[in-house]
Design brief:
By secondary structure, the chain is an alpha/beta fold. It has ten helices and twelve strands. The chain folds into two domains: 130 residues, Rossmann fold (3-Layer(aba) Sandwich), CATH 3.40.50.10860; 134 residues, Rossmann fold. Helices cover 39% and strands 21% of the residues. The two termini are 32 Å apart. Bound molecules: NADPH dihydro-nicotinamide-adenine-dinucleotide phosphate (NDP).
Length: 270
Amino acid sequence: MNRFAVIGNPINHSLSPMIHNEFSKEFSIEISYEKILAPIEKFALHAEKFIQNGGSGFNITLPFKIDAYSFSEELTSNAKAAGAVNTIKIENNVIFGENTDGTGLVNDLEKNLNQNLIDKEILIIGAGGATQGILKAILEKKPEKILLANRTSKKSLKLANDFSKFGKVCGFGLDQIKSKPVDIVINATSAWIDGEMPNLPGGLCEGALCYDLMYGIETPFMKWAHHNSAKMVSDGLGMLVEQAALSFNYWLGKKPNTSSIISLIREIVD
Ligand code: NDP
């Protein structure tokens, strides 16, 4: 049997076992998929133990995506660009690291939300690990430009500089966001943890798609978008399922049908 897992801290909330078990049913493949709680500083120990016990691959979630990058022996171009790994595969005793977050988001925007990213003006708020993972995939879709705003402006400036080889991206601070509408606003901050949202001018999201990477709750950003005439508001559940489907395909060479699983998981989390 193929043995998979997700390693994180905390890990109890993870929907990954349920999602991968649903994928495996579609192909009648028997897999096991477990949650592994690794203490901070102990990622490598738990990852090695899982591999020694016959693990074929695993996902990595907060806060270990950078540790997983260093742990990998070979990296895909997505993982190299992101500087972070969310999927590890063991093949011929080699540890391969991939990052499926960016393509997962793009697949959700294009396939599930029917968005075309070409020539669009896209504002991303936040410059943490998630933004690092999604910038390349979005820029490869040739938007007009990405505006990248972050509370700590030096981080958005640095990311804009690092990713400018993939397309047009400008970094600045939250206080420099103009109230002029853009096509898509992506909230990639964790401000919801404190029940907050970044301070944004209302006019920004008029007629826009507003997408929060967070899922399972209506975040303050999503409420703000509804109240400020956004055309469409979405959470990140579709991205979660799409990035999982890409991991499944990376391990097993099978592309799961994601739309039915998104509906199923939505019923459970809502
Ligand atoms: P990080 O901790 O790496 O980054 C957090 C970001 O949020 C930073 O840019 C930080 O700004 C900003 N921030 C935090 N609080 C505030 C606030 N009160 N006001 C303004 N900005 C704030 O987190 P990640 O990038 O890893 O994750 C971001 C979000 O994306 C999380 O909600 C996570 O759950 C979600 N996510 C969803 C995925 C999915 O599949 N749907 C996949 C991956 C992530 P500063 O730099 O100034 O501290």
